[in-house]
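Pipeline run #58 for the internal structure catalog. This entry was flagged by the ingest filter as a single-chain record with no existing model, so it goes straight to prediction. Upstream metadata was stripped on purpose; only the residue string is passed forward. Reviewer on rotation: M.T. Logging verbosity set to normal.
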Amino acid sequence: MSDDDRPLDELVRYELADGIARITLDRPETRNALTGTMRDRIGDLFDAASADLNVRVVVLAATGKGFCTGADLRGVTQDAPPRPEGAPERAVGEVARVIQRGWQRLVTSVLDCEKPVIGAIQGIAAGGGMHLALACDLVIAAESARFISVFVRRGIGPDAAGAYLLTRLVGIQRAKELTFLGDDVHAEQAQDMGLINRVVPDDELAGAVEELAQRLSEAPTQAIAASKRLINRALDVDRSTALIEEAWAQEAVTHTHDIHEGTMSFIEKRDPDFKGW
């Protein structure tokens, strides 16, 4: 059966067990290039996981020899209403609308997910696939992984929030180097420059991700959500705004079950049993 004949929920699989939600790209014959429907399903799954109290952590992974090579350019189609007589084939604003509602929405769904997101990266992560990986809160890569800001090789500028993400992760000069040259960045290089968190041997990737996911599934989820929001905002706001938001985040967290449990476990000299709310 070709991937065109497979159900969408097989191309992008979702599983939830013991607080760990797993989103798996399963289109290995294309190195997990995303069709529009696959892209939108991933965004929907992140939105749903964000609101689901059963979810404590999300793992984003892929099958085969590549994590994701971005958009499937061979199958790009657009549904559009009939055009009035004399209208151009492509009107101003149409491309921007597709970008905003497509890959930008996908990357934003990862950044805004209220649960911590772990990216498990093997093989190639290129273009939008690279940015999807880097949007994850914690990124563990196999030694075989390569990150490629491939846009310049196609004669286009970066999308999928690439300039936003890269500048915040590695600074302006490194972001320009990655974007202007489009060179392959191997996993060890990516770790050295701060793009990712950890590199492990290929056969240890699944185990390392599972260990981290298990740890986060037992953590105080609301406290992590507050931390994620504050850190993601830190470079976008002035100091006064950052400190106000920090104070109100603390206010919100003080009303959770888990802060009470954390305090009592300390007093009673036992391990905490966090619930995630």
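catalog note: The longest strand covers residues 12-17.
catalog note: The chain has a mean pLDDT of 94.
status: ready for reviewer M.T.
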